[in-house]
Specification:
Length: about 120
């Protein structure tokens, strides 16, 4: 098993200690439904290995960074939103309101979204 933190919420989901609605898993990443969806399709994509945030990636993480992006490319097909479109967002740090410190990309779709993603 890749490096884990005993008390990290998402490490616990990786280990199966906390149930989650899993939509995809391979040897590197896990994709599961967000408990508080903000759109009809809302899935979190995480590495099995504990990395706290996007800011904590180092050059040695090139492989896992690629695996996360590859999952973000394939999971929309599972969700049926490959053609309609989707967004892949990493909340990082206080201004972005990151609340779980195990790196995760929010894959959201299934509705028309606006841009910019916040009120002017
Ligand atoms: P962020 O704010 O970017 O750190 O988003 C964390 C997300 O994690 C948030 O959208 C809700 C989700 N979340 C928190 N706890 C759980 C949980 O126990 N299970 C699942 N499936 N999602 C969770």
């Amino acid at each position: 098993m890749a490096h884990q933190e005993p008390d990290c919420l998402f490490c616990r989901i990786v280990r199966g200690e906390i149930p989650a609605k899993i939509v995809y898993r391979n040897d590197h990443v896990l994709a599961f439904r967000d408990i508080s969806p903000v759109s009809p399709q809302h899935v979190l994509i995480i590495p099995l290995r504990h990395i706290a945030s996007l800011s904590d990636l180092s050059p040695e993480d090139e492989g896992i960074a690629g695996q996360i992006l590859l999952a973000a490319s394939s999971v929309p097909g599972i969700l049926g939103i490959r053609e309609s479109g989707y967004r892949f967002v990493f909340n990082t740090g206080p201004d972005a309101m990151q609340s779980v410190f195990h790196i995760h990309g929010h894959l959201i779709g299934g509705k028309q979204m606006g841009w910019p993603p916040f009120p002017a």
